[in-house]
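Appendix B: complex inputs.
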Amino acid sequence: MLKYIGNRILQIAILLVIYVAIVFFMLHAMPGGIKTLLISNPKLTPQAQESIIRAFGLNQPLWLQFVDYMKNVFTLNLGISFSYYPTPVWNIIAERLPRTVLLFTVATLIAFFVGFASGKSLAWNRGKTTEYVSTVVGIITYTIFTPLLIFVVIWFFGSFLGIFPLNQFLNPDLWIHTRLNAQVIFLYILMTMLIIGAVMLISYIMALRFSHKVMTRKMIFYLSTVISVVFSVFFWWVSPVGIYAADILWHMVLPVMTVTIISYAGNMLVMRDSMLETIKEDFITTARAKGLPDKVVRDKHAARTAMLPVVTNFVLSLGFVVSGGVITESLFSWPGMGMTLLDSTLAKDYPLAAGALIFTGIFVLIAHLVVDIVYAFLDPRIRY
Amino acid sequence: MKRFLSLVLVGIVVVGILAFAGGTANYALLSDVTTLNIWSMLGPNATAWNFYPALGKYGSLYSMSDLTYQVVPALADGFWSPLEKVTEDGTTMYVTTVKLLKGVTWSDGTPFTADDVVFSYEVPFKLQMPGNWMSNIPPDLFVKVVKVDDYTVKFYITHPSGNFIYSILMSVIVQKKFWEPVYEAALSQKDPAQYMMSYDNNLLSEPSIGGFTVSQWQKGAYLLDKAIPNYTFKGQQEIEYANGAVQYVIPSLNQDNTYYGTAEGTVNNKFVTGPYVDSIIYRIYQNQTAAVSALLKGEVDYILNPNGLQKGFVQQLQTNPNVKIVENPSLGFQYISFNMRRYPMSLKPFRVAIAYLIDRDLLANKILGGNTNPLSSLVPPGNKFWYDPDLKAYGEGMTTIERYQAAIKTLKDAGFSWLIEPKIQNGQLVQRGQGLIGPDGKLVKQITMMAPSAGYDPIRSTAALWVEKWANDIGIPLYADLTSFNNIVDAVFNQNFNFDMYILGWGITIYPDYIYEFFSSDQNVPGGFNAPGYSNPDFEKVAKAFLDSTDMNVARQYAFKAEEYLNADVPYIVLFAPTVIEGYRADKISFAYTKCLDGIQSGYSGYGEPTYVQVIQ
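Resulting structure:
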């Protein structure tokens, strides 16, 4: 296994070099350039334009720019952004990343669990009306035009009912009375989620180690989870900054709801199809013949095998979380990595666009590796 | 006595108005601010989004009056002295003295003095700050600025130039006390300019000389501008007379000055400077739809956007009776350019024939449904001082058939002919022309006119198709190539003028130095502004004289003459001045004026009139 991981890491490194090179040349191949933007401003004299181009290092030959860029990337220096000159690209990514990670991780997690549970249930209730209705609804939500859904959601919940904010990630009327940086609150929320996740993982492992009884294991796991969640909520409740975190989470409801509606059906349909295949297997018939309860056959035997493709989807989705979603972020005015990528590409901000793409690429490549490792745990037949 | 009484009366009115001040105005921005660092803001980060909330905290020696756009003193006390020629160390220069207003203070109580002025010019000039700094303080014009005493400075320039007034004297003034330690640290760095531009410690505590200061910035969410309680110019009255005079009364400094005439007769406009609000929140949205929804819901009172609102939102906004829609011509124009380096665009009759064919009024008012403003001169009518009302475009007032006839005659007189000549009978084009033959006897090959595609700009793409049609009707083999904006700019400016004709647009300035910049021979270089390749020594002479004049009345006459040459030679055919559409909540805020060149959002209106806006209590 370790040898396999070592080989994969080497492959990732090689892929990354190729990916970075492709990203660099693709961005520079786009028609126009920073000069295109500068030339359209007649207030900037040619001398003034040249001074900006020199400051950006764009007066050098392309091959030299490429060499410098590769050198910088592999010394973890993503360069200086043109449109936020002279802010380093890292600083901009560090600012935007928590907003994107929080929103899309929560949405992806919810979409996974909803999709997994509903897909499992649908396959088990094959032929019933609920199955048909749920499948049709799922396909509609999966294929719906995303901006249309977002407009409807914003209009209905934000404007018509007026119960959720229309957009943005915080309410300025609340925040103008504090000197708190929203970035800090995002990081605290993410940390809280990480802690809860860590508690869940540890309690799961402990439960497996210390008891053979399913009920005991479940009790350890769920109790630990509930305690960690309650404690977190209590901590935020008594904290003076809790209200600001609540404000951010309140603003997250609509975008998370929208992303979940769009994404859950993909997981649901994959899980459903996978379950339908698994149910036909002999070992399921054997399990039933043994007189095991339906729920046990469904959850412990069928779903556990059927979930492999869904887990693949899920882990890969987590990798793509860092790239955000341009449409979601734009329409909900949630400035994250997706908007960063779009804006930087349109502004010919090569370092920032390349930095955002490279970041996404690294995470996706790592996600692929994680999928392979997770597979080995989920499917004992797979060994490296 | 009469004057004293009227001052007292006005003072009472001012106090009365200010007594009802207060509240918070909410403006929407459609993109995040990228920096609060003034060096970067006027350098590579010069965007309207940065200017809107942050530029107002700085001052300048001179600025422009509201609505009449006349140069008036701001931090200066009166106008500059006449330029005198001097020689220092064998170098000939021109020097002028500028006196500074006494009693002006920064928001931290520090007095504004000559030290701030000298510092504000020395730093960007010595460090060769890129971008707008270099345009505002051009190295080929600015030599130095010297402190004479705390309230007097002398400017040294290489030659007289209108840019001295509109660029140098209007350059931004920063506080020396705040920035000097940063500058000293920068001097020991490898790249001092980058150090200055990247400084971001305590920028929120940088003192302001304007009516507001940025007090909070939640990146990606909002900025909060707070009113400065001790703003020196609070209560200043600006009175604009019909005779052209502009009067400024500054109660806090005991100043009452009138420029460009005498303060008598009909008053056209009167403004009293606030701030009238306690604060302005600039809420950041990522797209117009979100901002429009917020405006309708009442979350914001006004949307700031340099391009205005898209026409499609107007109907939606009109469903709310509290939303007022304002339309103004933008400070810019859209135009066709010829590449005079190529045949047959190099022939004046050919260009004149195309000019005859273009019916701007028909295009703008009928075909484009009034969504743009027809414009035939390089200077829009709203720029009253520099606009020449006597300039007439080719074909003005003609019908379509008359235009065809004029164009055909022009081509014929120049020696053009056709394989099939266009025929007009009984006021109708009964035979379309085909196969245009040049004076050299050769068939004219297809001429490509690049224009933005409909997805980018439906107005210019529609105009391009109609110009193509009119040209084809009389046998000119014109093809409208609708393509991406980047492709056009790339072909024109990056590929060394690789085009026949194109349609683009310019955002321009009040001071029309672009009349020179766009057509001078020294800009006829790769990447230069003279895309047509225009070269006319007579034009060059008057355009240079215009640029070198520091007496604006003299400069204006030269500018008019230069425009006459351009109008006759047609290197450009100016088509339209786009409309800036804006919307605001008339039940929540009011502005001092809404009819102005380039809209309320314009820099000439202070970027949303922050010192005039009032919250309706």
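Chain B touches chain A through 65 residues (CB under 8 Å).
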